[in-house]
Amino acid sequence: MTKKSRLNDQAKLKVVCDELCDNIEELFDHFDLEYKDHGKMISMACPIHEGDNEGALNLYVQGDNYRGNWKCRTHGCEQCFKGSIIGFVRGLLSNRKYQWSQEGDKTASFKETIDFITSFLKKDLNDIKVSKVARNKSKFTNAINHIKNSSKVSTENCLTRDRIRPLLKIPAEYYIDRNFSKDILDKYDVGLCDNPDREMYNRVVVPIYDIDYNYMIGCTGRSIFNKCDKCGSFHDPNKDCPEDRRKYLYSKWKHSANFKSQNSLYNYWFAKKHIQETGVVLLVESPGNVWKLEENGIHNSVGIFGSALSDRQKIMLDSSGAMTIIVLTDNDDAGRKAAEQIKEKCQNTYRIFIPQISKADVAEMDAEEIDREIKEYIKGVI
Ligand SMILES: [Zn+2]
Ligand SMILES: [Zn+2]
C-alpha cells in the first residue's frame, strides 16, 4: 500500500467516525442502548462488558478532536477496542456476536466492524468522499433525515402539559427568590420536584415541549443546592460528598433520560411565530435568559442549552425564517467563546450581532437595562 492511499484511508476512517457520530442516536437504537445525554457527553452502563454502573461509560459527541471518543471507567474496555467510535462499535459487536466480556475473549475483527458500519450507514467505503464540501453536504443530509425521523416519533410515552403540571410545585420558589415573576414560571411550567422516587428529585424542573407545544419531549432540572466547596458538585449540604463516580448525578443541571439537548431549542414552541414575523432570533444559553426576555416583552428568543450551537440546532434555525441572529450568550469567557462559535457557524447565512451587556447574563438584568442594552440595540440593527 502506498503512503498516499494509507493517508486517504485514515481520512476516510475519520469521515466514518464523523458519520457515526451524526447518527449516534440511531446507532444506540440499533443496539437498544439506554443512555443519558449531558450535552457534550453521553453516559450509560457499559454495554460491552455488560456492567450495571449507569455512569461507567462516557462517550463524547461534540468537540473536533475527541468527538466519538469513549471510556469505560470501571473496566477500561476501550483499551481492548481502542477509544474511537469505531472501537466502540467493535466492542459492541464483540459482545453481541461472541459474548465478549473480558480481555482474552473472542473479539469481532476490524473487517467485521467496518462491514457492519458501512451497512449501517448504507455507504460503501470506496464512495466516501473526504473533501470538506462533501462532508458538509453529508452532515446536512444526516441532520435532515434525523429531523424527519424524530417528527415521526411515537407520542405514546410523551407527557402532555396537563399531566406534567400536577407532578411539580409550580411556580418554583427557587426562581421567585431569584427575581423571576410567578406568572412567567407558571407560563413555562417551572416547578420543584420534591418526590424522592423521581430522577429530578430536589431539582427545579424545566419542561421542554415539541415545536407544536403538544408534548413534553424532555426536561432539564436545576439542582436547588449550591456548589459544594469541597467536591464541586451540587448536592444536599447536609449529606456527605458523593463518590467521584457518582458525581455526575449531582451536576448543576441534569437532563431527563434520553433528552437530546443538541436537537432542541428551548422556547422554540412559543418563539417560532415571533421569529417568523420579525426575521430575528435571539440566542441565549439557558432557560432563565429566555424567561427574563419574555417577561420584558421580547418573544423571539431561544435557548441552546449550553455554550455551543449544534448542527441540528442550526438547521432548526435555518427553517425558522430568521435572517438576523442576535447572540446574547453569557458575559464571561465561555459565553464569548460560544458567541464566536455561533458567528463562525452562521455568518455565511445570517446577519450576526453580538451586543455587549453590562451584567453577567441576561437573567440578571433589570427592565431598565433590558430596555437600554437590548431593546434599543435591536431597534438599531433591524
Ligand atoms: Zn466496559
Ligand atoms: Zn461535596
Secondary structure layout:
Blueprint: H1 3-22, H2 24-30, E1 36-37, E2 41-44, E3 57-60, E4 70-72, H3 78-81, H4 85-98, H5 110-121, H6 132-151, H7 161-164, H8 173-176, H9 182-187, E5 191-193, E6 203-209, E7 216-223, E8 253-255, H10 268-278, E9 280-284, H11 287-295, E10 301-303, H12 311-318, E11 324-327, H13 333-346, E12 351-353, H14 367-381
Parallel strand pairs: 9-10, 9-11, 11-12
Antiparallel strand pairs: 1-2, 2-3, 3-4, 5-6, 6-7, 7-8
Helix pairs in contact: 4-5
Bound molecules: zinc ion (2 copies).
Residues 228, 230-231, 233, 235, 241 line the site of one zinc ion.
Give an overview in words.
It is built from 14 helices and twelve strands. Helix 4 crosses helix 5 (110-121). It starts with a helix and ends with a helix. It is α/β, with parallel strands linked by helices and 382 residues long. Strand 6 (203-209) and strand 7 form a beta hairpin. The chain is globular and about 65 Å long. The mean pLDDT is 90. Bound molecules: zinc ion (ZN) (2 copies).
